[in-house]
Amino acid sequence: MVAVSEIRAESGFEDLVQKKPWHQVTLELTRKYPLGVFGAVVVVVMILLAVFANVLSPYDPEENAFEFMLTPPGADFWLGTDQFGRDILTRIIYGARTALFVGFSCAMIGACIGLVLGVASAYFGGRFDLIFQRVMDVFMAFPLIIMAMAVVSIFGTGTQNVIIAITIPFIPRCARVVRSNALAIREIPYVDAARALGYSHTRIILRHMVPNVMAPFLIMLTAFVGQAILLEASLSYLGLGVQEPTPAWGLMLQGGAEEYAESAPWVAVWPGIAISLAVFGFNLFGDALRDALDPKLRQI
Hints:
Helix content: over 70%
Radius of gyration: 22 Å
CATH superfamily: MetI-like
CATH topology: MetI-like fold
Number of domains: 1
CATH class: Mainly Alpha
Shape: globular
Number of helices: 14
Largest sheet: none
Number of strands: 0
CATH architecture: Orthogonal Bundle
Distance between the termini: 27 Å
């Protein structure tokens, strides 16, 4: 059986980390995948900000202080304040918690459902695969943002509904990628041997096929997190996502991107930088993960 450990060994990843001290592994990873390490650092910093937001943030993210409205960046407010007198640095730190919660929730749910459906479609084939792929084509005919806007307009706004709206478009995209890899795995003799031994379809799919498509699944998972963060910010900016007073980067852009572009540009600049760094970091990390797991893209 071609196991996940064998896939990692083929890519050189196992040789890189096996029997070596952690600092040496870190140096070699930095040398081979410098952009990927930078992306990983951005992701780790973002996670730390989200986890320790209560400790790191200097102010209450939801408390209005109208006497400090639109205060420029300075000693008291490092990144300035918004039109309600709220500290922008505090809201960016707490906004990382919202972005990661939505991002990881949408990515995990959408990618896992797409993983199972894609492998099942490749395994059963025939009419089931034909009907399933046509249904996926219908969902993929709509751009991500259009599909998300349509779903959230049906279910309404709020964090939970935003997660549903973003998760649904992710399912067919993961299912199609996983299915293309599972089609090749279905033809490997050990799948026929499992059928001959009388194993159930569920056991063959979950135990023998799913572990061998984990490489593309992990790559899609990291890519989905960045896309989900961007989609959540877009929906919040349009007024269809997270609602006030919850700290969210898209809401911060909505409140200052146009009205205060000239008089108080810091209101929109810092949330925009936060969104860009988060998406950029997850994309770089996903690209490096793809290079590490795919032997065809391995750096020599």
